[in-house]
Write a structure and sequence with these properties.
Number of strands: 15
Distance between the termini: 26 Å
Number of helices: 11
Radius of gyration: 20 Å
Structural class: alpha+beta
Oligomer: single chain
Helix content: 25-40%
Number of domains: 1
Length: 346
């Protein structure tokens, strides 16, 4: 891919010194095989995801991109900032996820609900983070083990479909297929808890951030686990204060969450978790995380009125493209890049 890389990474610096695509990028990529393949991968993930959920009776929801209830509020352990806009005098947010609405969808569709839509984030874009990215999300009835099993089936299916439909194109771009073949044939996805991961990383200060009440893995830490433990790895049961309030507690002491991140490629590509069942559990978690109930009152009311055990996940689609293509900069893998605070055309 050396020849293609020179075109993919063409960019300039904005007046503020930030990464920005070259003004003529949209013309330069039109005849590049890499971007023809990217279009095919976009189509593949859309159609294959639709077929996957249709076979399971899980319904697609058409949802707005605006919300008053961001799923990554600026709580204690949040590493994400919402995108606030003024919509005809009404303060609102561009959706960072539609997980809450998918939970609502489970009350309307017993087998579950899914969507594939843009998500918006306020933090700075970099080689592994986008300001606007596509999110493949779903919510189903059941617990953490149920959604983990579903995610494994989903990513295996996507890997198998890539090999069948795009294998020759990838080989023509000098993209190795071994990692995709490994995923497609993987029967048992290795798992370790966060505590086990921290013990394994053995005090590496670059691998774990310790905030006292909670810890989180760095990208370096995730990379070490992938290189040294397994190239596909679940890390489960994070410290609860490091995850959003809506993740269910693993035990009455409220220290651990019923959540799991699936690491492959650059690190976390899929985030999954079980949700609180009742409104009272949700209120307790909001207080625990020092998050105001105001924007989540409807969500709590829903759990008061219709308690339900659900779990769900979100996959960053462009991160999945990075893994498929073995590419190092996620910002290249957009047909029309979007960066917060920078005007871009087309």
């Amino acid at each position: 891919m050396r020849e293609v890389e020179g075109i993919l990474t063409s960019f300039h610096r904005s007046p503020h010194g930030r990464w920005c695509p070259a003004p003529d990028r949209f013309l330069r990529i039109v005849d590049q095989p890499m971007y023809r393949t990217l279009v095919d991968l976009q189509d593949l993930v859309t159609t294959a995801t639709s077929h996957f959920w249709r076979d399971r009776g899980v319904k697609a929801l058409h949802l707005p991109i605006t919300t008053d209830s961001v799923s990554s509020p600026m709580g204690l352990g949040s590493d994400s900032s919402p995108v606030e806009i003024d919509l005809f005098g009404q303060r609102t947010y561009l959706a960072d996820s539609m997980q809450f609405m998918l939970e609502y969808g489970c009350r309307l569709s017993p087998e579950g609900a899914w969507y594939l839509m843009p998500s918006f984030r306020g933090e700075e874009a970099d080689a592994t983070h986008l300001n606007q990215f596509f999110h493949s999300e779903a919510e189903i009835q059941g617990g953490l083990d149920d959604v983990v099993c579903t995610v494994e089936s989903y990513v295996r299916m996507l890997a198998t479909t890539v090999l069948v439909e795009c294998g020759k194109q990838l080989e023509s771009l000098a993209v190795p297929l071994a990692h995709i073949e490994h995923m497609a044939g993987l029967d048992d996805f290795p798992r370790m808890t966060l505590d086990e991961a921290v013990d394994y990383l053995d005090g590496d200060p670059l691998a774990v951030r310790d905030f006292g009440q909670w810890r989180s893995l760095t990208r370096h830490g995730e990379r070490r686990l992938l290189d040294e433990v397994s190239p596909v790895l679940w890390v489960t049961h994070f410290d609860h204060l490091s995850v959003p309030f809506y993740q269910a507690y693993a035990a009455p002491d409220r220290r651990k969450a019923l959540n799991a991140d699936l690491l492959f490629g650059i690190g976390e590509v899929v985030g999954a978790g079980e949700r609180h069942v009742t409104g009272e559990q949700c209120r307790s978690a909001l207080a625990h995380h020092s998050v105001s109930e105001d924007a989540y009152r409807w969500y709590v009311d829903m759990k008061d009125a219709i308690p339900m055990r659900t779990s769900g996940f979100g996959m960053g689609v462009e991160r999945w493209f990075m893994w498929v293509l073995g590419h190092s900069d996620i910002r290249d893998l957009q047909l029309a890049p979007r960066l917060n605070g920078i005007p871009l055309a087309p």
